[in-house]
Amino acid sequence: MFFNEQGIIDIDEMMAQEPSFQNIMADGMVTEEELRQQSRKVLDLLHEVEQRFSDEDKLFIKKLLAETNVLSAIYRYYEIQKLTYHGNL
Q1: Contact partners, residue 73, CB within 8 Å, separation at least 6
Q2: CA-based Rg of the chain, rounded to a whole angstrom?
Q3: Model pTM score
């Protein structure tokens, strides 16, 4: 479910398979309305998590979301660093 046959998680591939991502990226542009709709979808899912799961489960999910976003943020910074400092090291 989370890992491929090599035991690697590929978040980009998971994201690419989501119909919401495919629909948003179909024209190669992201609009403010698409951002609002996707934000609402995420908020709705988080509200559903609050209703469906135990407090312990919610803490685990919160940690997972936070650490996933840390990974995403530092990956972006890493890529920017490579672009910024390429050839200057």
Answers
A1: none
A2: 17
A3: 0.74
Please give the full DSSP string across 22-59, using - where no structure is assigned: HHHHTTS---HHHHHHHHHHHHHHHHHHHHHS-HHHHH
Q: What is the pLDDT of residues 57-74, one digit of tens each?
A: 999 999 999 998 999 899
CB contact at 8 A, 53 and 61 = yes
pLDDT, position 1: 78
C-alpha distances in Å from residue 24, one per residue of 13, 20, 36, 44, 84: 16, 6, 12, 18, 29
In whole angstroms, give the CA distance from residue 89 to residue 84. Answer: 10
DSSP label at residue 20? H
Q: Which residues does residue 3 pair with via DSSP β-bridges, in sequence order?
A: 9
Q: Which amino acid is at 65?
A: L
